[in-house]
UniProtKB/TrEMBL annotation:
Pathway: Amino-acid biosynthesis; L-lysine biosynthesis via DAP pathway; LL-2,6-diaminopimelate from (S)-tetrahydrodipicolinate (acetylase route): step 3/3. It comes from the Bacteria. It comes from Lacticaseibacillus parahuelsenbergensis. This is N-acetyldiaminopimelate deacetylase. Belongs to the peptidase M20A family. N-acetyldiaminopimelate deacetylase subfamily.
């Protein structure tokens, strides 16, 4: 596929961002595009119980194994502020995490193998719901990757704004953190602002909960380890002279190992129980990890990936450390060995999830080429 075609696809996808599990237009666009490729050795599959997902199998000439390639397809509840002429046409929703770039690269790779039949089988998984609702886990747990759709090794990328366009980067070990969504409901008693003795103020209880949570990473995690707990949403109260009888908080916790995540979850539950006792209120702590396991790259496959990318003169490879962003590809890599890697998209003044995030489209063609060449390498004899 020519660079201009990749850019045209990316711009169309960019204009129709959809939230997790609602990716109907995106699914229709992806299906139409895949149907426009030569169909001789393709099988297209949809999942009745996960209707926005799309799978495409490329049948190999002499298959010894099946290699999977995954892209996420959902967007974020962000109002785009890029000023691009092809900005989001869906109010309040944007591809602020670059999944339009991910999908376009996947279509570019698939188009290549639709025209050049591979030796082994390839399965492309266009996965809904990465940002929330763990679409990867949903698909895996419903038995999607069994029988003819079994995958031996799995690859996927994420775009990265602080790397030059087209640069490939990954590491041995954990690449992305495991995350857990935290929802906390504090239930007390509302009343008159002037009569606190007759009420039970949940703004004060929530403030205390938040303050105690700040001690977890600072005081319970070794200074040589990393973890983060952030509360990004807090709702309580209606007016200055009514004591709030309820407060609601949403946050996320992140760590690089499952052991550490389990520990952080336990501390949050403990603090919730402590607040309930000390404020004589109800505190319901709901923790949901879903499929957001730490993204742990398989040692053998990732060593081969890094060696290949470093040795190919057409590829710029950069080493990297782990990051605290999460990815539900972590769940799939927990079940199927594989490698997740970054693709540089050169937007260093912005960041993932920002309203002005605008990846550099010149990353598309080298991204496709690097993955196509790597997959050819994996399918060569002796690999
Ligand atoms: C790449 C990226 O930004 N991923 C998301 C994953 C969502 C995690 C989950 N919804 C949570 O907040 O725990 C991220 O926020 O890192």
């Amino acid at each position: 596929m020519k660079e201009a075609e990749l850019i045209a696809i990316r711009r169309q996808l960019h204009q129709i961002p959809e939230l997790a599990l609602q990716e109907k237009e995106t699914h229709a666009f992806l299906l139409k595009t895949v149907q426009s490729f030569p169909q001789t050795h393709l099988t297209i599959r949809t999942l009745p119980k996960l209707p926005t997902a799309l799978l495409v199998k490329v049948h190999g000439q002499n298959p010894q194994r099946t290699i999977g390639y995954r892209t996420d397809i959902d967007a974020l509840p962000v109002t785009e502020q890029t000023g691009l002429p092809f900005s989001s046409q869906h109010s309040g929703i944007a591809h602020a995490c670059g999944h339009d770039i991910h999908m376009t690269v996947a279509l570019g790779i698939l188009d290549y193998f639709a025209h050049h039949q591979p030796k082994d089988n390839l399965i492309f998984f266009f996965q809904p719901a990465e940002e929330s609702k763990n679409g990867g886990k949903l698909a895996y747990d419903m038995g999607t990757f069994t029988g003819d759709w079994h995958i031996d090794e799995f690859y996927g990328l994420h775009d990265r704004p602080d790397l030059p366009a087209g640069t490939i980067s990954t590491r041995l070990g954990t690449l992305f953190a495991g995350t857990t969504e935290i929802n906390v409901d504090l239930i007390g008693k509302s009343g008159h602002a002037a009569l606190p003795q007759n009420a039970n103020d949940m703004i004060v209880a929530a403030a205390s909960f938040i303050n105690q949570i700040q001690t977890v990473v600072a005081r319970n995690v070794s200074p040589t380890d990393s973890a983060v707990i952030t509360f990004g949403l807090m709702r309580a109260g209606t007016i200055r002279n009514v004591i709030a009888g309820r407060a609601y908080l949403e946050g996320t916790l992140r760590g690089f190992t499952q052991k550490q995540i389990d520990f952080l979850q336990q501390r949050i539950r403990d603090i919730g129980r402590g607040i309930a006792a000390s404020f004589n209120c109800d505190v319901n702590v709901d923790l949901n990890q879903g499929g957001y396991y730490p993204v742990e790259n398989n040692p053998q496959l990732t060593k081969d990936f890094i060696q290949y990318m470093q040795s190919d003169p057409a590829v710029t490879f950069a080493p990297t450390g782990p990051v605290m962003t999460g990815e539900d590809f972590g769940y799939l890599l927990n079940k199927i060995p594989g490698t997740m890697f970054w693709l540089g998209v050169n937007d260093p003044d912005s960041q993932l999830h920002a309203a002005d995030f605008s990846p550099d489209e010149s990353a598309l063609a080298p991204g496709v080429t690097a993955v196509v060449y790597f997959l050819e390498h994996r399918m060569a004899e002796n690999n």
